[in-house]
Design brief:
This protein has a domain of 41 residues. The chain is built from one helix and five strands. Strands 3-4-5 form a three-stranded antiparallel beta sheet, covered by helices on one side. A two-stranded antiparallel ribbon has the order 1-2. β3 and β4 form a beta hairpin. It is elongated.
């Protein structure tokens, strides 16, 4: 899950596993695998950074 901000400045959390693609049109649009589109204020690069950080956090093995 990653945090993002809608255009109305309300923060929400989206399942990063459901993101199909992200584009700038010029607003940033997150399209989910179910074709739902979400407009956010963060630039594409920031969404990518957050998704990568999330992916690393769930796939990194931490020994006890």
């Amino acid at each position: 899950m990653i945090r993002a901000t809608r255009l109305n400045r309300k923060e929400f959390v989206v399942n990063a596993e459901l993101i199909q693609y992200v584009e700038e049109t010029p607003d940033t649009v997150i399209t989910l695998s179910n074709k739902e589109k979400i407009l956010v204020v963060e630039p594409v690069e920031e969404i990518i950074r957050r998704v990568l950080a999330y992916q690393r956090s769930i796939r990194t093995f931490k020994s006890p």
